[in-house]
């Protein structure tokens, strides 16, 4: 038996043969050229091709692993157009007369080295991103295809390191677990393994994984260990760990069918966030009380033209029918910024997060918006629909959106197509402007849902896509956000409307008590986090003063 120790990334025990994947080695030899102009053109063309490829990967990844994890490809795009990176490459071609691939390889090596020397795990992880993106660039310069990982049986995949793009393209049905020699827990490969629920460990050190190809092994993702050909005693211990973890999971199932109620009787709703029909089974499996956020823009992504009214209607109707009368909050299209939809032909903007996106885009394109609204209204006949408007900053936007909803209703009446009259209209509170004006806005809508992802980005003035600033989204920095949220809650309740949370922070169990104390009425999280959140709520005891608030219903 041989034991390798690393860092745990995602829990679980995986048993099976090891499959060693040797990453593509881009071989680049030192070469000089006489026609530097032609070489620069070669580099620019490869850069354009690599950028287009990353756009494709991003679109595919969104439907596979969700927007957050897919954003690695946006980061890679940023690296490709990074000023310092590009200038250094061009200088090496123009001044040193190096070939394009050699200039890229040399520059990438220097940049990666800078990151590797840093002490933080996070920055070490970025060295892999630089290698990934520069290899892609070199492949295009050399006109070579990327090698994909072809697995023909269920294996524990091991490699020196894995690029996020390799992980993203894996055939998951054959991946029992992942082990890498290097990497960091913050690397995107780690993030992806967690999202895809694959037991994984990283950083088992430089070694002989390649020589272990084909040998049987057990991966302990809970404790970060890999046992190659484990002896009987170790196998028994691993069986025990597995049984205990399964029991914990089973215990969690006991919370199915229970209320989300604190020890002193305060009850709130726990809903689930979805991207489409495919997530509904998971919503039921985890016993969510409703859908707190259906990101409707996901229907528009990863395709070359807009879904028409019928296609949208079909999707919304399916979700409503399958939720069998439980609340389904469908957010109107929240495109733009990081969720770029190419067929909208949006102009390039210096600050897309502050640009033509979301409700702004819909109000600029009323016909497109009304198409979605008609589809939503028609679908309302099949369940309990609530419509939610994203990125609101003032009352006028609400008035304009409501006027378009009325126009859509008039059109449906003319067509004799039915819709329900009692559909609730709410807004997301995800801009500081909406939070500040929440007392006024609460008088115009039926509910609020706080989008902590964007609200935090705008409150902190920190780009949520910028991995270098990730630490701004950690616990200590939530103070300003929490004060804002408490104010929004008070304003909502003053005017008798409920308020939910649908950003990622809703799943932070360290904040659940704080949310309950401020009077949040509903929290919406990824389906698999519904039961852990219910368990947490049921262990909380609030003080008397807070219990008096009284709950508003969605
Ligand atoms: C948010 O901003 O918190 C939110 C839920 O919306 P999205 O993450 O889709 O922008
Ligand atoms: Mg948002």
Overall description:
Helix content is 44%, strand content 14%. The model has no long low-confidence stretch (mean pLDDT 88). The strands form 2 sheets. An 8-stranded mixed beta sheet has the order 1-8-7-3-4-5-6-2. The protein has an 8-stranded parallel barrel with strand order 9-10-11-12-13-14-15-16. The protein folds into 3 domains: 2-23 and 148-231, Phosphohistidine domain (Glucose Oxidase, domain 1, 3-Layer(bba) Sandwich), CATH 3.50.30; 36-141, Enzyme I, Chain A, domain 2, CATH 1.10.274; 254-548, Phosphoenolpyruvate-binding domains (TIM Barrel, Alpha-Beta Barrel). The protein is globular. Helix 11 packs parallel to helix 13. 46% of the residues are buried. With 554 residues, the protein is of the alpha/beta class. It has helices at 36-65, 67-70, 72-80, 83-94, 100-116, 121-141, 164-168, 188-195, 232-253, 280-285, 309-322, 358-364, 366-379, 395-414, 432-436, 438-441, 452-460, 479-494, 512-518, 530-537, 544-547, and strands spanning 2-5, 7-10, 13-21, 155-159, 175-180, 200-202, 216-220, 225-228, 269-274, 291-295, 327-331, 384-389, 424-429, 447-450, 499-501, 522-525. Phosphoenolpyruvate binds at residues 293, 295, 334, 430, 451-454, 502-503.
Task: Please describe the topology of this protein.
Layout: E1 2-5, E2 7-10, E3 13-21, H1 36-65, H2 67-70, H3 72-80, H4 83-94, H5 100-116, H6 121-141, E4 155-159, H7 164-168, E5 175-180, H8 188-195, E6 200-202, E7 216-220, E8 225-228, H9 232-253, E9 269-274, H10 280-285, E10 291-295, H11 309-322, E11 327-331, H12 358-364, H13 366-379, E12 384-389, H14 395-414, E13 424-429, H15 432-436, H16 438-441, E14 447-450, H17 452-460, H18 479-494, E15 499-501, H19 512-518, E16 522-525, H20 530-537, H21 544-547
Parallel strand pairs: 3-4, 4-5, 5-6, 9-10, 9-16, 10-11, 11-12, 12-13, 13-14, 14-15, 15-16
Antiparallel strand pairs: 1-8, 2-6, 3-7, 7-8
Helix pairs in contact: 1-3, 1-6, 3-6, 4-5, 5-6, 11-13, 13-14
Bound molecules: phosphoenolpyruvate and magnesium ion.
């Amino acid at each position: 038996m041989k034991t390798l120790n690393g860092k745990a990334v995602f829990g679980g025990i995986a048993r099976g043969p090891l499959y060693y994947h040797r990453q593509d080695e881009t071989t680049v030899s030192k070469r000089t050229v006489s026609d530097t102009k032609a070489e620069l053109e070669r580099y620019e063309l490869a850069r354009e091709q690599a950028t287009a490829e990353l756009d494709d990967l991003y679109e595919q990844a969104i439907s596979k692993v969700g927007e957050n994890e897919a954003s690695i490809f946006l980061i890679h795009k940023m690296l490709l157009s990074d000023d310092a990176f590009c200038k250094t490459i061009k200088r090496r071609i123009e001044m040193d007369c190096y070939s394009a691939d050699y200039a890229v390889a040399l520059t990438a090596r220097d940049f990666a080295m800078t990151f590797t020397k840093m002490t933080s795990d996070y920055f070490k992880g970025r060295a892999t991103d630089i290698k990934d993106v520069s290899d892609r660039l070199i492949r295009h310069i050399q006109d070579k295809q990327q090698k994909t990982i072809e697995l023909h049986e269920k294996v524990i995949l091991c490699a020196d390191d894995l690029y996020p793009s390799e992980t993203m393209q894996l055939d998951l049905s054959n991946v029992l677990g992942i082990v890498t020699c290097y990497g960091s827990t913050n690397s995107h490969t780690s993030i992806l393994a967690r999202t895809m629920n694959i037991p994984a460990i990283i950083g088992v050190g430089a070694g002989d994984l390649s020589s272990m190809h084909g040998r049987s092994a057990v991966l302990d993702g809970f404790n970060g260990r890999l046992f190659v050909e484990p002896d009987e005693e170790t196998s028994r211990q691993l069986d025990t760990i597995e049984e205990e973890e399964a029991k914990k999971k089973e215990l969690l199932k006991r919370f199915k069918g229970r209320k989300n109620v604190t020890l002193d009787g305060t009850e709130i709703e726990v809903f689930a966030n979805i991207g489409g029909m495919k997530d509904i089974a998971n919503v039921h499996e985890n016993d969510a009380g409703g859908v707190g956020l259906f990101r409707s823009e996901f229907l528009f992504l990863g395709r070359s033209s807009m879904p028409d009214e019928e296609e949208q209607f079909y999707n919304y109707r399916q979700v409503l029918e399958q939720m069998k009368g439980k609340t389904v909050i469908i957010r109107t299209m929240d495109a733009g910024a990081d969720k770029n939809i190419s067929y909208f032909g949006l102009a390039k903007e210096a600050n897309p997060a502050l640009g033509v996106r979301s409700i702004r885009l819909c109000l600029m394109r009323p016909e497109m918006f009304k198409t979605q609204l008609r589809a939503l209204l028609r679908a309302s006949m099949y369940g309990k629909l609530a419509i939610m408007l994203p990125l609101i900053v003032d009352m006028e936007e609400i008035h304009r959106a409501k006027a378009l909803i009325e126009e859509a209703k008039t059109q449906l009446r003319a067509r004799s197509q039915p819709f329900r009259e009692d559909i609730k209209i709410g807004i997301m509170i995800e801009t500081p402007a909406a939070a500040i004006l929440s007392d006024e806005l609460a008088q115009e809508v039926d509910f609020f849902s706080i989008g902590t992802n964007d609200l935090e980005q705008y409150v902190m003035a920190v780009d949520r896509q910028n991995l270098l600033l990730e630490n701004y989204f950690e616990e200590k920095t939530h103070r300003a956000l929490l004060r804002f949220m408490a104010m929004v809650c008070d304003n909502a309740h003053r005017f008798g409307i409920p308020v939910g949370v649908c950003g990622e922070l809703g799943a932070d169990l360290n904040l659940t008590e704080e949310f309950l104390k401020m009077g949040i009425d509903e929290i919406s999280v990824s389906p698999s986090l519904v039961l852990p959140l219910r368990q947490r709520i049921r262990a909380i005891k609030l003080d008397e003063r807070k219990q008096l608030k009284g709950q508003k219903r969605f």
